[in-house]
Amino acid sequence: MSYMDHDQDYAPDYLAGILKSVKTIAMVGASADRTKFSYGVLRVLHETGYDMIPVNPTLAGQEIRGLPVYPSLADIDRPVDMVEVFRRPEDLPEIAREAVEIGAKVLWGQIGVRNDEAARIAEDAGLKVVMNRCPKIELFRPFWKPRLNQEI
């Protein structure tokens, strides 16, 4: 099997296709702290219309932006299209295995979150993989907006 080179730029159609096709996004490492980057990304994706599921064991049972926080991916009670990760790169292989187990279609590592072992685990299971990118930034690249049916 040939693996993607996650140090290269992703084709715009690859990222746009992911952002257009996914509906439900589990955010591993979601934070209730409004000053954290993960909170801002959760807010924008939620406001854009994605079904956001915050995942953080230390905040389980609480809410972020009115959304219930789950302790783990395995505890989520509905299908998940994409697992977005705000954790250390060394945590990613285990999260990749969990993403495969719950039937996610995409594993997305936030800026600074990149791990080749995790990419292989996910790709071997048929998931699309994005590493070291921010979906909030990608979502608002002007040349993609028409493809995502959004106003420019």
Give the topology.
Layout: H1 12-21, E1 24-28, H2 37-48, E2 51-55, E3 63-64, E4 67-68, E5 82-85, H3 92-101, E6 106-109, H4 116-124, E7 128-130, H5 135-139
Parallel strand pairs: 1-2, 1-5, 5-6, 6-7
Antiparallel strand pairs: 3-4
Strand portion: 15-25%
Order of helices and strands: HEHEEEEHEHEH
| Distance between the ends | 39 Å
CATH superfamily: NAD(P)-binding Rossmann-like Domain
The helix/strand class is alpha/beta
The radius of gyration computed from the alpha-carbon positions, rounded to a whole number of angstroms, is 14 Å
Provide the CATH architecture. 3-Layer(aba) Sandwich
In CATH's first tier, which class applies? Alpha Beta
Structure in words:
The protein is of the alpha/beta class and 152 residues long. The protein has one domain (19-148): Rossmann fold (3-Layer(aba) Sandwich). The chain has helices at residues 12-21, 37-48, 92-101, 116-124, 135-139; strands at 24-28, 51-55, 63-64, 67-68, 82-85, 106-109, 128-130. It has a five-stranded parallel beta sheet, with helices on both faces. The mean pLDDT is 92.
